[in-house]
Amino acid sequence: MPAELKAQTKLEHHIKYSPVPRELRLWGEMIVYSIIILIVVSAYYFATNASFSERILNRAVGDVALLLIGFSLVLSSICYFWDFADKYIIYRKHLGLVGSGYMTIHIVFSILFSAYSPFPGYYLEDKRIASFIGALIATAIFVLLAAISNRFAIHEIGATRWRKLMRLGYIGFVFVLFHFGAKGIQYWTPWLTGKSESIFPSFSLIVFMFGVGVVILRIALWFSTSQKSKLGN
């Protein structure tokens, strides 16, 4: 059995048969870890900005969402290339769903509490529409994945089809990166070209590069498994 399928099957088995007390512990751990990450990200923004506003807090929440979803997606690649990480695959669902929760908070804050209103007029302006469409597509995909991340869905859809649907997460993640890139490039360019007074980059750039790493590892995994399949035939 290919290592990727083995890891995915282990996750599927965990979702279907994990005892409730253990599930509650995993949820509790992941929520605590996510809060710690949010505090660290917020501290970085506070240290690198003259002020810390509600808008910056919302950016930090968006960054945490990408980090958690990215960790969820990259686990299969890490487990494939490094055996020591196999025991962490059980956190994949919790990472993804908690990350989707932060994504939801980010969206709600952007719509309801943003100073840039009315919605969606601000986001449909020429220079923002591409970023908005990327976010819209990504949101639709991750809402679908969140809806089927449960025992009932696996039973109704079937394990094979469920695994294929879960791979949509990588497409959604690419659209998240597109959203981040289209929105952040104007802030990153001065730092990348040495024209910024700030010594440190925006944390959104760091998160974006992490996301690119997730995609690269996924491509490496696909290439490796494809080569092994060809050799097997």
Automatic annotation (TrEMBL):
<keyword id="KW-0472">Membrane</keyword>
<keyword id="KW-0812">Transmembrane</keyword>
<feature type="transmembrane region" description="Helical">
    <location>
        <begin position="200"/>
        <end position="223"/>
    </location>
</feature>
<feature type="transmembrane region" description="Helical">
    <location>
        <begin position="168"/>
        <end position="188"/>
    </location>
</feature>
<keyword id="KW-1133">Transmembrane helix</keyword>
<feature type="transmembrane region" description="Helical">
    <location>
        <begin position="129"/>
        <end position="148"/>
    </location>
</feature>
<protein>
    <recommendedName>
        <fullName>Ferric oxidoreductase domain-containing protein</fullName>
    </recommendedName>
</protein>
<feature type="transmembrane region" description="Helical">
    <location>
        <begin position="94"/>
        <end position="117"/>
    </location>
</feature>
<feature type="transmembrane region" description="Helical">
    <location>
        <begin position="59"/>
        <end position="82"/>
    </location>
</feature>
<feature type="transmembrane region" description="Helical">
    <location>
        <begin position="26"/>
        <end position="47"/>
    </location>
</feature>
